[in-house]
Design goal:
This is Transcription regulator PadR N-terminal domain-containing protein. With 219 residues, this protein is mainly alpha-helical. The chain contains nine helices and two strands. The C terminus is likely disordered.
């Protein structure tokens, strides 16, 4: 069974249109702005994905072509199993939320490693980066609108923008709380919290194993 990935789905989608070589796939993904949601920056990742799809009989080699001074290029085509699998993956990804593990929430879970002032500076920097990314997306969307690209082909950009707006608003609120001192911590406070909530392993297991105490009926 071939492991699903956004790049694997993109390859199947490209080959559903027509047989093509990897360079053509990469260029089409970028030209259509799909690199906003699919990482095709590394050519090796694309070739590794294609190899997995070939081994899984989801795509097949159609021919090898040579164009003048360019090296030989292998042209791939989709198989019937590939068409069915692509539709299956798409239905699953549309219907079922995936439990992703992005880096930013993981970093937030370890904020006490830094001081409140340091965290505030880093998140302030993130605010600027998010603002610039939002402006870039808006410019890209405006260009697509000018040439009348149908909304069907811009939906992923709408979602990315909506997520950016929510994150930007939230990060700004956290920065404001850090600057106001309503969100803060110190080593002494962290030590106190550790003593209050972190129990010895044996005691923790013992408490988990005990049933809830029954209340005596009032006489």
């Amino acid at each position: 069974m071939v492991r699903h990935s956004p790049l694997a789905l993109a390859v199947l989608a490209m080959l559903t249109e027509a047989p093509m070589h990897p360079y053509r796939m990469q260029q089409l993904i970028k030209a259509r702005g799909k690199d906003e949601v699919i990482n095709v920056g590394q050519r090796n990742s694309l070739y590794q994905t294609i190899d997995r799809l070939v081994r899984g009989d989801l795509i097949a080699i159609r021919e090898t072509e040579r164009d003048g001074a360019f090296p030989e290029r292998t042209v791939y085509e989709i198989t019937e199993a590939g068409r069915d699998t692509g539709r299956l993956w798409l239905r699953e990804q549309l219907a079922q939320p995936a439990r992703d593990f992005p880096a930013f929430p993981a970093a937030l879970s370890f904020l006490p490693l830094l001081s409140p002032d340091d965290v505030c500076r880093q998140l302030d920097t993130r605010v600027g980066a998010l603002e610039r990314e939002l402006a870039r997306l808006d410019e890209t969307t405006a260009q697509a609108t000018e040439v009348q690209v149908p909304r069907l082909f811009l939906l992923e950009g709408e979602l990315v923008r909506a997520q950016l707006v929510v994150e930007l608003e939230w990060v700004r609120s956290v920065v404001a709380d850090l600057k106001a001192g309503t969100l803060t911590w110190s080593q002494e406070w962290l030590d106190e919290i550790a003593q209050r909530f972190i129990l010895p392993a044996g005691e923790y297991k013992y408490r988990l194993a005990q049933p809830a105490a029954k209340k005596e009926p009032k006489s």
